[in-house]
Hints:
The chain is of the alpha/beta class. Helix content is about 60%, strand content about 5%. Helix 2 crosses helix 7 and helix 6 (about 175-185) packs across helix 8. The radius of gyration is 27 Å and the shape is elongated. Residues about 1-15 and about 20-50 have low confidence and may be disordered.
Amino acid sequence: MNTFQKHIKSIRSLRSLILLILLSSFLSLFSLSTVCFSQVQATQPAKSPTDHPPLIAQEHMIYFDRAYEHQAKQIQSSLIKSIQETQSQIQSVFAQDFEPKSLKIFLTGSTQEMLDLAMDRQGGHPPEWADGLAYPSSSEIYLVAKNLQQLQTTLKHELIHIALHQTDPNRSMPRWLNEGLSIYLSEGIPWERGILLNEAALKKKLLPFATIESAFPKYGQSASLAYAQSAHFVQYLLNQYGHDKFSKFIANLVQSGDVNSAMAQKVAFDQTAIQIEADWRSQLSQHWIFKWLSLFEESMLWGLGIALFVIGGQIKLNQRKRKLEKLRQKEQKEDELQAMWLKEFLDDQKF
Length: 351
């Protein structure tokens, strides 16, 4: 289960998640995926390396929990692939090379082990809900060794945090841009984020980006919405203006330290931040999911979800019945053949 879902503690967002599961279950019958991460700043110099022997992969060092040493080669290959893919993405979006220098990656067996190791080496108090931690000042990344696909996604996210720190050492980027880029480039816009975003737009509860420039809400629906909005807004900027203008916006922002000024430059978006946000909100309201949700009251959506679940269950039941009937017919034919052979055998014995 991803960290986005861990954040959903309000009843309203839980309802959306359950509805999504019901819809996904129905669609899967016809063969028709968030993790929240954290960029952390060290509060004291990093301590000496752990006693675990590192696996040297090119110029990077990967430290394994001993429980995963039997998968070392497979994990190394997967992580190196993620690094290369992230370098290519950053080149495309930022129009600059990304070379993670002296990168150290620590793979732990659980979230608590990751947090303990990060606190031991870096100090501070990393967020308990994180699936990955990036410390750009020391080029260290801490991960929980889950399945390889999730591991790749988390590493990409944390690598982008480090790349953004290299691009913007003075930390001029607003929080929504930093997290939005990290999420969008590593995992895109998963369905669950899209459902939450469209529900907030439908109920006019989207967060003004000015309120999430320096920090995000820590917990609950507001925190989840902040991540969803940020990723979707970054996607909108890239699609609307293209990679070239987006990279110029980033360069302007790093130089000026002002979002509105960076956006308004003619070589970038040539619009103010307020205008662009208004256009984004307007386009979001035109999305087919928004229009579809706006046709139903919440009670009707629940009824539709339950109906789809029941229909899906009935289809599964009918499929099972047909399969059992075929097996019964096959067994009946086999019994008839055996009876026929037995009769022929007995008839032969009479003579």
